[in-house]
Amino acid sequence: MRIDLHTHSTASDGTDTPAELVRNAAAAGLDVVALTDHDTVRGHAEALAALPEGLTLVTGAELSCRVDGVSLHMLAYLFDPEEPEFARERELVRDDRVPRAQAMVTKLQALGVPVTWDQVARIAGDGSVGRPHVAAALVELGVVPTVSDAFTPEWLADGGRAHAGKHELDPFDAVRLVKAAGGVTVFAHPAAVKRGSVVPESAIAQLAAAGLDGIEVDHMDHDEATRARLRGLAADLGLLTTGSSDYHGSRKTVALGEYTTDPEIYGEITRRSTGAFPVPGAGGALRR
């Protein structure tokens, strides 16, 4: 089985619609794909309706979190999207995305960049607006060559000249909320130092004690030495280890299925979930 547990669609900051994403996942030879848009489940229904025969969809989301001033992302899988407390928290995070992006546009304009809110809104379309859309505007304007080049201290990285904060979950609260909604939690790209500051391993140990299920190890932002270190850490803490593309369509160079998750790990994730279940074939209900 080929299993990719971290992808994005136009419901957040990817360039494939949810329907295109599942079709492209099948064309890439995947057996299982997780749709994990930022702080939203809005793309799930479209993905389910378009799900090709032979492909299984895992519903999820990538949650924006912050601890001790450091931003981190938490992948949540197979939770009940209607659980009230968790739904309210996701809405708070989403609602803060627009003023945050507008603040970044204002800062860029003060730095002499001729970016406009209309431009960023056009790029975001119906998606949950975020930094990648502002970064894409910088690429359009020729300020930086790629989206990744915008995530530096000079521009949009945490603490960067044009960075602006937003409402983010405490990761311990995120673990609690996802668990209460019957889901499974995996810390996304925990050692992606090129993105900015990362949390210390002591914080990962504390999250493991609080119920974190796993960490994403095989990822484009982790080199081989980092992956080996994370595998050792996961073994010490009893955490699952996943691999995934973090696919964003044409917004990043990584391909669907470039990194994958072991089928036994995937099986354990599905065994631990009680809020929703993987959907095979041509669509189906999300709730158990």
Commentary on this structure:
- The protein is of the alpha/beta class.
- 36% of the residues lie in helices and 15% in strands.
- The protein contains ten helices and eight strands.
- Strands 1, 2, 3, 4, 5, 6, 7 and 8 form an eight-stranded mixed β-sheet that branches.
- α5 (117-124) packs across α6 (131-140).
- The longest helix is centred in the middle third of the chain and has 14 residues, at 97-110.
| Number of β-strand runs | 8
Number of helices: 10
Note the overall shape: globular
Oligomer: single chain
Strand fraction equals 15-25%
The percentage helix is: 25-40%
Radius of gyration: 18 Å
**What's the mean pLDDT score?**
94
Terminal CA distance reads: 24 Å
H/E element order: EHEHEEHHHHHEHEHEHE
Strand count, sense and closure of the main sheet? Answer: 8 strands, mixed
Low-confidence runs of at least 5 consecutive residues: 283-288
In terms of structural class, how would the helical and strand content be classed?
alpha/beta
Q: Which terms summarize this structure?
A:
eight-stranded mixed β-sheet, 288 residues, alpha/beta, single chain
A few lines on this structure:
The chain is an alpha/beta fold and 288 residues long. It has helices spanning 18-27, 44-49, 84-95, 97-110, 117-124, 131-140, 171-180, 201-209, 224-237, 263-272, and strands spanning 3-7, 32-35, 56-67, 70-77, 184-187, 214-218, 240-243, 279-280. It starts with a strand and ends in an 8-residue tail after the last strand.
Please describe the topology of this protein:
Elements: E1 3-7, H1 18-27, E2 32-35, H2 44-49, E3 56-67, E4 70-77, H3 84-95, H4 97-110, H5 117-124, H6 131-140, H7 171-180, E5 184-187, H8 201-209, E6 214-218, H9 224-237, E7 240-243, H10 263-272, E8 279-280
Parallel strand pairs: 1-2, 2-3, 5-6, 6-7
Antiparallel strand pairs: 3-4, 3-8, 4-5
